[in-house]
């Protein structure tokens, strides 16, 4: 009896834009798009470590931006757990009782999302931040999903200029702030209005 095999989904390119035009924030936004696409997630967001605190950088929707900001403000959520453990952290269905991250959990459900996986972004074994992918349906996030996203993360980190990677993440904050003024305004508004 022949065994059926399932082909892996195609991995979107994170590398299709001229290097001269990419800022660190744009690289992370392209990464979020690629990861959400390949995992068929509803939305995604990325945050970077600044000292020991996650700071929201980019998101594909207001819901994801809000969730990244809740993690930033509360210093609690799957992204924080992922950077602390240097391992993916997932929740299949946060509509069910769960003692982890109460405010984050409630906000996730309020946005019509129920499932999340947060994957650490790293360079040479140093965790720099996290990429979170969200879904509106309960789902498992198998190791194969995490492996594909880690490949995308590796490609995205390679796209960053050598000067950025040496100074990452602290050296990229001025560029992110300058390139994403509207994102910072949204983040400030979301943080102030829980």
Residue windows where pLDDT falls under 50 for at least 5 positions: 1-19, 176-194
Question: Shape, please?
Answer: globular
The end-to-end span amounts to 57 Å
The major β-sheet equals: 5 strands, antiparallel
Topology as H/E string? HEEHHEHEEHHHH
Helix/sheet category: alpha+beta
Mean pLDDT: 77
Strand content: 15-25%
Quaternary state reads: single chain
**Alpha plus pi helix count:** 8
Q: What is the alpha-carbon Rg in Å?
A: 16 Å
Major sheet strand order: 2-1-5-4-3
Summarize the structure.
The chain is of the alpha+beta class and 194 residues long. The protein is built from eight helices and five strands, in the order αββααβαββαααα. 45% of the residues lie in helices and 19% in strands.
What do these coordinates show?
This protein is an alpha+beta fold and 194 residues long. The protein has helices at 24-39, 62-74, 78-85, 102-110, 143-159, 162-167, 173-179, 181-192, and strands at residues 43-50, 53-59, 89-91, 115-123, 126-135. Strands 2-1-5-4-3 form a 5-stranded antiparallel beta sheet, sandwiched between helices.
């Amino acid at each position: 009896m022949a065994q059926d095999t399932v082909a892996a989904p195609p991995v979107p390119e994170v590398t299709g834009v001229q290097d001269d035009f990419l800022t660190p924030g744009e690289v992370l936004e392209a990464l979020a798009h690629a990861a959400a696409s390949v995992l068929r997630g509803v939305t995604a967001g990325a945050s970077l470590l600044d000292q020991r605190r996650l700071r929201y950088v980019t998101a594909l929707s207001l819901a994801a931006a809000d969730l990244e900001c809740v993690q930033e403000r509360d210093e609690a959520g799957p992204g924080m757990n992922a950077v602390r453990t240097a391992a993916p952290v997932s929740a299949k269905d946060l509509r069910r009782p769960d003692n982890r991250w109460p405010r984050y959990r409630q906000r996730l459900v309020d946005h019509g999302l129920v499932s999340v996986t947060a994957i650490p972004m790293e360079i040479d074994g140093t965790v720099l931040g996290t990429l979170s992918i969200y879904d509106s349906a309960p789902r498992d996030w198998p190791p194969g999903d995490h492996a594909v996203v880690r490949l995308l993360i590796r490609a995205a980190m390679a796209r960053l200029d050598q000067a950025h990677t040496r100074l990452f993440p602290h050296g990229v904050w001025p560029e992110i702030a300058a390139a994403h003024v509207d994102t910072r305004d949204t983040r400030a508004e979301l943080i102030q209005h829980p």
